[in-house]
Amino acid sequence: MITLLVGVLAAASLGAPFGDASAVAEPDGDYIAVTVTVEVDPSFNADYVVVHLLNPEGQETFPLAADGDGAHSGLFTVLPFNRAVVFEAGREDGRVVSETVSILELGVEADLLYTTFQPAGDQPPERSWGWLALASGALAAGALMAFFLLPKKVAGRPSPVAGSEPSK
């Protein structure tokens, strides 16, 4: 009941002929099962309604079934990332797409979604060790290069220095 209330309170408006849209999700192993609902004006006479989930690699499209009074809903299972969502309604003379919203804006609880970025200032302390290891490695490489590339003094002989004569 509370999930339904949160979904209704978080409904997003998408532009005509679309009305309100909402989504709820439940964990499903490593995935989430998302149920979306969108209202489409019955006077539009849509032959089909689908939802497009946009990903960096492209998009996934899922059909939505008519529930009566212009409501359409569907269930799909995806990896738990906050994705952009676009609804599409079509009929013989063309199609219409909605405003772009996110799964989070549709009402899916943020706790169910992976964090895809870390806010500035929240760096974990382990990262400072990586910089220390990188600096130590660079220092060791510099020491090895200096040892092998700098001229060496051989016992009893002066080191060759460019532009100087050997002393007698």
3D structure, described in words:
19% of the residues lie in helices and 38% in strands. By secondary structure, it is an alpha+beta fold. It starts with a helix and ends in a 19-residue tail after the last helix.
Task: Set down the secondary structure blueprint.
Blueprint: H1 2-9, E1 12-13, E2 18-28, E3 31-40, E4 48-55, E5 58-68, E6 71-78, E7 84-91, E8 94-97, E9 101-102, H2 126-149
Antiparallel strand pairs: 1-2, 2-3, 3-6, 4-5, 4-7, 5-6, 7-8, 7-9
Summarize the structure.
Helix content is about 20%, strand content about 40%. It is of the alpha+beta class.
Q: Main attributes?
A:
168 residues; disordered N terminus; 38% strand; alpha+beta; 19% helix
Strand content: 35-45%
Return the structural class: alpha+beta
| Rg, Cα atoms, Å | 31 Å
Largest sheet: 9 strands, antiparallel
Order of helices and strands: HEEEEEEEEEH
Intertermini distance: 100 Å
Shape: rod-shaped
Helix content: 10-25%
How many β-strands, per DSSP? 9
